[in-house]
């Protein structure tokens, strides 16, 4: 999982369905050499895929990581899945970084969102 403290924590917004999500859930090994750099590169690479809508990350203190990637259509998801650099990162992940993982791909049929309006502080 990437660690971007300078970026506000905001989930990817709701999009007009249908679109696709890839939910990648991991437990990592102790060996993480090169992981952060590769993960950052994969995020940058995904952004260049036509039809990419965004990516959310979460990591529990116990080590469970979840990345959800959003794509406008199945073709965009296929372009991401078959990208040569992404495929190489997948192989390295299986060889070094992941104890286990699951990948779930789904077509989103409903999407809503909520953002609390900022309330001014007293005396501000």
Describe this structure in words.
The model has no long low-confidence stretch (mean pLDDT 91). Strands 2-3-1-4 form a four-stranded antiparallel beta sheet. The protein contains three helices and four strands, in the order βαββααβ. It has a domain of 86 residues: Alpha-Beta Plaits. A hairpin with a 4-residue loop joins strand 2 and strand 3. It is α+β, with helices and mostly antiparallel strands.
Annotation keywords:
single chain, alpha+beta, 29% helix, 4 strands
> Residue share in helices?
25-40%
Shape: globular
Helical stretch tally: 3
Supply the CATH class of the domain at 23-108: Alpha Beta
Distance between the termini: 36 Å
Number of strands: 4
Domain ABM: 19-92
Keywords: Monooxygenase, Oxidoreductase
Organism: Kitasatospora misakiensis
Enzyme class: oxidoreductase
What's the short story on this structure?
Keywords: Monooxygenase, Oxidoreductase. With 124 residues, the chain is an alpha+beta fold.
Mind sketching the topology for me?
Layout: E1 19-28, H1 35-47, E2 52-59, E3 64-71, H2 74-82, H3 84-97, E4 98-108
Antiparallel strand pairs: 1-3, 1-4, 2-3
Helix pairs in contact: 1-3
């Amino acid at each position: 999982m990437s660690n971007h403290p300078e970026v506000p924590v905001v989930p990817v917004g709701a999009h007009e369905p249908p679109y696709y999500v890839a939910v990648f859930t991991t437990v990592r090994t102790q060996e993480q050499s090169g992981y952060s750099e590769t993960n950052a590169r994969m995020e940058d690479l995904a952004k260049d895929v036509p039809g990419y809508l965004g990516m959310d990350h979460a990591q529990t203190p116990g080590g469970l990581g979840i990345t959800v990637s959003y794509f406008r259509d199945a073709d965009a998801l296929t372009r991401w899945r078959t990208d040569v650099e992404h495929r190489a990162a997948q192989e390295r992940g299986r060889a070094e970084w992941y104890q286990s993982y699951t990948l779930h791909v789904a077509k989103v049929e409903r999407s809503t969102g909520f953002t609390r309006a900022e309330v001014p502080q007293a005396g501000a």
